[in-house]
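Action item from last week, closing it out:
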Amino acid sequence: MWRRTANTKSIMSQLCLYPNESKLILEDYKYSIKNTHRSVLQILNIEDAIKQIKANNIEGSLVEAGMYTGGASAYMLLSASRNLGNTNREYWGFDSFQGMPMPSPEDGDYAAMWVAGVNLSSISEDSKYKGSRINLANIKDVKRYIEGTGYDAERLHIVKGWFHETLIQCADNIGKIALLRLDADFYEPTRISLEILYPLLVDKGILIIDDYGAFEGCKKAVDEYFEEAGIKPVLHYVDHSIRYVIKGE
Protein backbone atom coordinates (compact mmCIF):
# COMPACT_ATOMS: atom_id res chain seq x y z
CA MET A 1 0.00 0.00 0.00
CA TRP A 2 2.83 2.43 0.82
CA ARG A 3 4.34 1.94 -2.65
CA ARG A 4 0.97 2.60 -4.32
CA THR A 5 0.38 5.84 -2.44
CA ALA A 6 4.00 6.92 -3.00
CA ASN A 7 3.59 6.36 -6.73
CA THR A 8 0.30 8.24 -6.69
CA LYS A 9 1.90 11.16 -4.85
CA SER A 10 4.68 11.26 -7.45
CA ILE A 11 2.23 11.20 -10.37
CA MET A 12 0.07 13.95 -8.87
CA SER A 13 3.14 16.08 -8.17
CA GLN A 14 4.54 15.68 -11.69
CA LEU A 15 1.20 16.56 -13.27
CA CYS A 16 0.51 19.34 -10.73
CA LEU A 17 -2.87 17.85 -9.89
CA TYR A 18 -4.68 19.42 -6.94
CA PRO A 19 -1.45 20.61 -5.29
CA ASN A 20 -3.29 22.19 -2.35
CA GLU A 21 -5.33 19.07 -1.67
CA SER A 22 -2.91 16.29 -2.49
CA LYS A 23 -2.38 15.25 1.14
CA LEU A 24 -6.11 14.82 1.77
CA ILE A 25 -6.64 13.06 -1.55
CA LEU A 26 -3.83 10.64 -0.78
CA GLU A 27 -5.33 9.89 2.65
CA ASP A 28 -8.68 9.10 1.03
CA TYR A 29 -6.97 7.05 -1.67
CA LYS A 30 -5.18 5.02 1.00
CA TYR A 31 -8.52 4.15 2.58
CA SER A 32 -10.06 3.29 -0.80
CA ILE A 33 -7.39 0.65 -1.53
CA LYS A 34 -7.56 -0.93 1.91
CA ASN A 35 -9.30 -4.02 0.51
CA THR A 36 -8.87 -3.81 -3.27
CA HIS A 37 -6.36 -2.10 -5.57
CA ARG A 38 -7.51 0.70 -7.84
CA SER A 39 -5.38 2.99 -9.95
CA VAL A 40 -4.71 6.66 -9.36
CA LEU A 41 -6.62 7.46 -12.56
CA GLN A 42 -9.72 5.75 -11.18
CA ILE A 43 -9.78 7.79 -8.01
CA LEU A 44 -8.90 11.05 -9.75
CA ASN A 45 -11.80 10.42 -12.12
CA ILE A 46 -14.13 10.19 -9.12
CA GLU A 47 -12.47 13.22 -7.50
CA ASP A 48 -13.02 15.30 -10.63
CA ALA A 49 -16.64 14.14 -10.91
CA ILE A 50 -17.38 15.25 -7.33
CA LYS A 51 -15.72 18.60 -8.00
CA GLN A 52 -17.88 19.07 -11.10
CA ILE A 53 -20.97 18.30 -9.03
CA LYS A 54 -19.95 21.05 -6.64
CA ALA A 55 -19.04 23.56 -9.36
CA ASN A 56 -22.33 23.07 -11.21
CA ASN A 57 -24.56 22.76 -8.12
CA ILE A 58 -25.79 19.38 -9.32
CA GLU A 59 -28.49 17.80 -7.19
CA GLY A 60 -29.04 14.10 -6.66
CA SER A 61 -27.80 10.91 -5.11
CA LEU A 62 -24.46 9.14 -5.46
CA VAL A 63 -24.97 5.68 -6.95
CA GLU A 64 -22.73 2.73 -7.75
CA ALA A 65 -23.91 -0.45 -9.47
CA GLY A 66 -21.22 -3.04 -8.83
CA MET A 67 -19.54 -2.35 -5.48
CA TYR A 68 -17.41 -5.47 -4.93
CA THR A 69 -15.50 -4.64 -1.70
CA GLY A 70 -16.54 -0.98 -1.81
CA GLY A 71 -13.29 0.83 -2.60
CA ALA A 72 -14.64 3.11 -5.31
CA SER A 73 -17.72 3.88 -3.25
CA ALA A 74 -15.58 4.62 -0.21
CA TYR A 75 -13.54 7.13 -2.16
CA MET A 76 -16.72 8.64 -3.61
CA LEU A 77 -18.09 9.22 -0.11
CA LEU A 78 -14.82 10.55 1.30
CA SER A 79 -14.47 12.95 -1.61
CA ALA A 80 -18.10 14.05 -1.27
CA SER A 81 -17.62 14.76 2.43
CA ARG A 82 -14.45 16.72 1.75
CA ASN A 83 -15.67 18.69 -1.27
CA LEU A 84 -19.36 19.10 -0.56
CA GLY A 85 -19.26 19.57 3.21
CA ASN A 86 -21.96 18.11 5.44
CA THR A 87 -23.82 16.71 2.46
CA ASN A 88 -27.36 15.43 2.77
CA ARG A 89 -27.02 13.35 -0.40
CA GLU A 90 -28.18 9.78 -0.32
CA TYR A 91 -25.76 7.05 -1.36
CA TRP A 92 -27.00 3.88 -3.05
CA GLY A 93 -24.69 0.92 -3.61
CA PHE A 94 -25.77 -2.22 -5.45
CA ASP A 95 -24.07 -5.57 -5.74
CA SER A 96 -25.15 -9.18 -5.99
CA PHE A 97 -22.82 -10.08 -3.10
CA GLN A 98 -22.93 -13.50 -4.74
CA GLY A 99 -20.01 -12.94 -7.08
CA MET A 100 -20.22 -12.43 -10.83
CA PRO A 101 -23.13 -13.74 -12.90
CA MET A 102 -22.35 -15.92 -15.87
CA PRO A 103 -21.90 -13.99 -19.15
CA SER A 104 -24.44 -13.70 -21.97
CA PRO A 105 -23.72 -14.49 -25.64
CA GLU A 106 -22.96 -10.78 -26.16
CA ASP A 107 -20.01 -11.05 -23.78
CA GLY A 108 -18.03 -13.58 -25.81
CA ASP A 109 -15.53 -16.25 -24.88
CA TYR A 110 -13.08 -13.92 -23.14
CA ALA A 111 -15.64 -13.05 -20.46
CA ALA A 112 -16.63 -16.69 -20.06
CA MET A 113 -13.03 -17.76 -19.66
CA TRP A 114 -12.40 -14.91 -17.21
CA VAL A 115 -15.28 -15.75 -14.89
CA ALA A 116 -15.68 -19.50 -15.35
CA GLY A 117 -12.56 -20.80 -17.07
CA VAL A 118 -14.56 -22.27 -19.99
CA ASN A 119 -15.77 -21.19 -23.41
CA LEU A 120 -19.15 -19.49 -23.66
CA SER A 121 -20.70 -22.55 -25.31
CA SER A 122 -20.09 -24.52 -22.10
CA ILE A 123 -22.23 -22.18 -19.98
CA SER A 124 -25.94 -22.97 -19.72
CA GLU A 125 -28.61 -20.28 -19.48
CA ASP A 126 -29.97 -21.66 -16.21
CA SER A 127 -26.59 -21.16 -14.49
CA LYS A 128 -26.47 -17.39 -15.15
CA TYR A 129 -27.59 -16.27 -11.71
CA LYS A 130 -26.08 -18.98 -9.55
CA GLY A 131 -23.17 -16.71 -8.67
CA SER A 132 -19.44 -17.38 -8.67
CA ARG A 133 -16.27 -16.91 -6.65
CA ILE A 134 -15.17 -14.06 -8.93
CA ASN A 135 -15.60 -10.61 -7.34
CA LEU A 136 -17.37 -12.15 -4.37
CA ALA A 137 -17.64 -9.86 -1.34
CA ASN A 138 -19.36 -10.12 2.01
CA ILE A 139 -22.09 -7.51 2.49
CA LYS A 140 -21.47 -7.19 6.24
CA ASP A 141 -17.79 -6.44 5.65
CA VAL A 142 -18.63 -3.93 2.93
CA LYS A 143 -21.20 -2.13 5.10
CA ARG A 144 -18.70 -1.86 7.93
CA TYR A 145 -16.03 -0.56 5.55
CA ILE A 146 -18.35 2.00 3.93
CA GLU A 147 -19.57 3.21 7.32
CA GLY A 148 -15.90 3.67 8.24
CA THR A 149 -15.77 6.66 5.87
CA GLY A 150 -17.74 8.61 8.45
CA TYR A 151 -20.53 9.40 6.00
CA ASP A 152 -23.97 9.78 7.60
CA ALA A 153 -25.02 6.14 8.14
CA GLU A 154 -28.70 7.00 7.73
CA ARG A 155 -27.99 8.05 4.15
CA LEU A 156 -26.14 4.87 3.19
CA HIS A 157 -28.21 2.29 1.31
CA ILE A 158 -26.40 -0.92 0.36
CA VAL A 159 -28.61 -3.34 -1.55
CA LYS A 160 -27.94 -7.02 -2.13
CA GLY A 161 -29.22 -8.88 -5.18
CA TRP A 162 -29.07 -9.17 -8.96
CA PHE A 163 -29.57 -5.89 -10.77
CA HIS A 164 -32.61 -6.98 -12.81
CA GLU A 165 -34.44 -7.39 -9.50
CA THR A 166 -33.03 -4.74 -7.17
CA LEU A 167 -32.66 -1.67 -9.40
CA ILE A 168 -36.28 -1.55 -10.49
CA GLN A 169 -37.40 -2.05 -6.89
CA CYS A 170 -35.33 0.89 -5.66
CA ALA A 171 -35.60 3.33 -8.58
CA ASP A 172 -38.43 5.41 -7.12
CA ASN A 173 -36.63 5.77 -3.80
CA ILE A 174 -33.37 6.76 -5.46
CA GLY A 175 -34.91 9.68 -7.31
CA LYS A 176 -32.47 12.09 -8.99
CA ILE A 177 -28.89 10.95 -9.50
CA ALA A 178 -25.88 13.30 -9.61
CA LEU A 179 -23.15 10.67 -10.04
CA LEU A 180 -23.71 7.19 -11.43
CA ARG A 181 -20.81 4.75 -11.50
CA LEU A 182 -21.32 1.47 -13.32
CA ASP A 183 -18.96 -1.42 -12.59
CA ALA A 184 -21.16 -4.21 -13.94
CA ASP A 185 -18.57 -5.85 -16.23
CA PHE A 186 -20.91 -7.75 -18.55
CA TYR A 187 -23.56 -6.97 -21.15
CA GLU A 188 -26.80 -7.76 -19.34
CA PRO A 189 -26.15 -6.06 -15.98
CA THR A 190 -24.70 -3.02 -17.75
CA ARG A 191 -27.68 -2.73 -20.07
CA ILE A 192 -30.16 -3.15 -17.21
CA SER A 193 -28.32 -0.53 -15.14
CA LEU A 194 -28.45 1.99 -17.98
CA GLU A 195 -32.11 1.37 -18.75
CA ILE A 196 -33.20 1.89 -15.15
CA LEU A 197 -30.70 4.38 -13.77
CA TYR A 198 -29.53 6.61 -16.63
CA PRO A 199 -32.96 8.29 -16.98
CA LEU A 200 -32.60 9.31 -13.31
CA LEU A 201 -29.26 11.03 -13.96
CA VAL A 202 -29.83 14.80 -13.97
CA ASP A 203 -28.62 17.21 -16.63
CA LYS A 204 -24.84 17.68 -16.27
CA GLY A 205 -24.82 14.64 -13.99
CA ILE A 206 -21.90 12.27 -14.52
CA LEU A 207 -21.91 8.66 -15.64
CA ILE A 208 -18.72 6.63 -15.08
CA ILE A 209 -18.47 3.31 -16.96
CA ASP A 210 -15.76 1.16 -15.45
CA ASP A 211 -15.54 -1.68 -17.96
CA TYR A 212 -16.13 -0.05 -21.36
CA GLY A 213 -12.66 -0.89 -22.63
CA ALA A 214 -12.23 -4.13 -20.69
CA PHE A 215 -15.22 -6.27 -21.71
CA GLU A 216 -16.84 -6.36 -25.14
CA GLY A 217 -20.27 -7.00 -23.63
CA CYS A 218 -20.10 -3.83 -21.54
CA LYS A 219 -19.09 -1.76 -24.58
CA LYS A 220 -21.86 -3.32 -26.66
CA ALA A 221 -24.48 -2.59 -23.98
CA VAL A 222 -23.40 1.06 -23.71
CA ASP A 223 -23.20 1.64 -27.46
CA GLU A 224 -26.55 -0.05 -28.08
CA TYR A 225 -28.33 1.79 -25.31
CA PHE A 226 -27.29 5.24 -26.48
CA GLU A 227 -27.85 4.45 -30.16
CA GLU A 228 -31.38 3.18 -29.49
CA ALA A 229 -32.07 6.25 -27.33
CA GLY A 230 -30.89 8.56 -30.10
CA ILE A 231 -28.13 9.96 -27.87
CA LYS A 232 -24.59 10.62 -29.03
CA PRO A 233 -22.65 11.07 -25.78
CA VAL A 234 -19.05 12.19 -25.55
CA LEU A 235 -17.19 9.25 -24.02
CA HIS A 236 -14.28 10.84 -22.18
CA TYR A 237 -11.24 8.58 -21.84
CA VAL A 238 -9.89 7.89 -18.34
CA ASP A 239 -7.83 4.75 -18.92
CA HIS A 240 -7.99 1.56 -20.98
CA SER A 241 -11.11 0.42 -19.15
CA ILE A 242 -12.92 3.55 -17.97
CA ARG A 243 -14.96 6.19 -19.82
CA TYR A 244 -17.20 8.90 -18.41
CA VAL A 245 -20.12 10.88 -19.79
CA ILE A 246 -21.50 14.28 -18.78
CA LYS A 247 -25.23 14.07 -19.44
CA GLY A 248 -26.43 16.58 -21.99
CA GLU A 249 -22.95 17.34 -23.28
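Closing note: The chain has a mean pLDDT of 92.
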